[in-house]
């Protein structure tokens, strides 16, 4: 069975200078008048404020972690002591390297003369989510545009939930299946993650959460459409 699955939510248009400028114009009514370092930093600040405000309003902890803390263990400890439902149950923030755009404008005309991509340590937000099909899912998103992300899934949790739905009894110690009433049936479910159809399942879980539960803090839904 496939165990850990990590998908890079790569947005090609936002990772080269010309593409980033096109992306910004689509978002701002075909104008790049506000494309500058100040507005880019404000967007990162807006992302942080929105996450903290949403967490406070919905009773979801937002924890800023220090270097060396094992975030997945924090999430596991939280799940062991709290009853959680479907959706985001915890947000862990920490600094990690990510592409950050710097815009240089002419001091005389104000025209853009250079757009440079740098790699810096910036806040990333790990949204810990309970999905009805995949169990514990983590989406780690940069707070800086264009909001690159990783989706982290566990194949064993997917198999466990599908086995429960199929009525297959099993025992599980941590991430290991130790016994199953129908080993062949459990194997068929596990094998499904190695088939081409798994691409569709991965696409569905990504779309189910990344726009409405994570990117919404950086871009409103109408901004996402633009």
List the SSEs and their pairings.
Elements: E1 4-9, H1 17-27, H2 37-58, E2 62-64, H3 71-81, E3 87-105, E4 112-131, E5 135-142, E6 149-154, H4 155-166, E7 170-173, E8 176-180, H5 183-191, H6 198-214, H7 221-225
Parallel strand pairs: 2-3
Antiparallel strand pairs: 1-6, 3-4, 4-5, 5-6, 7-8
Helix pairs in contact: 4-5
Estimate the helix proportion, in percent: 25-40%
Gyration radius, rounded: 20 Å
Residue stretches low in confidence (pLDDT < 50, at least 5 long) are none
Total helices: the number is: 7
Structural class: alpha+beta
Shape: elongated
Cross-sheet strand order for the largest sheet: 1-6-5-4-3-2
Tell me the number of strands.
8
Mean pLDDT: 92
Q: Classify the oligomer.
A: single chain
Order of helices and strands: EHHEHEEEEHEEHHH
Hey, roughly how much beta strand do the residues contain? 25-35%
Largest sheet: 6 strands, mixed
N-end to C-end Cα span: 39 Å
């Amino acid at each position: 069975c496939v165990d850990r699955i990590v998908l890079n939510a790569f947005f090609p248009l936002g990772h080269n200078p010309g593409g980033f400028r096109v992306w910004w114009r689509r978002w701002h009514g075909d104008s790049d008048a506000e494309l500058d370092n100040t507005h880019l930093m404000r967007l990162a600040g807006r992302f942080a404020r929105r996450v903290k405000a949403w967490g406070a309003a919905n009773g979801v902890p937002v924890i800023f972690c220090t270097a060396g803390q094992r975030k997945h263990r924090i999430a596991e400890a939280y799940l062991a002591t709290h009853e959680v439902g479907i959706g985001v149950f915890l947000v862990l923030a920490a600094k990690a390297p990510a592409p950050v755009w710097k815009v240089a404008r002419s001091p005389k005309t104000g025209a853009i003369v250079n757009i440079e991509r740098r790699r810096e340590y910036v806040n990333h937000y790990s949204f810990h989510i309970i999905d009805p099909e995949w169990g514990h899912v983590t989406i780690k998103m940069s707070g800086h545009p264009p909001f690159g992300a990783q989706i982290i899934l566990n194949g064993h949790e997917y198999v466990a939930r599908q086995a429960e739905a199929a009525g297959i009894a099993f025992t599980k110690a941590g991430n290991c299946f130790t016994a199953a009433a129908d080993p062949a049936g459990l194997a068929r479910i596990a094998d499904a993650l190695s088939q081409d159809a798994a691409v569709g399942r991965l696409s569905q879980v990504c779309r189910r959460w990344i726009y409405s539960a994570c990117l919404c803090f950086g871009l409103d839904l109408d901004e996402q459409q633009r």
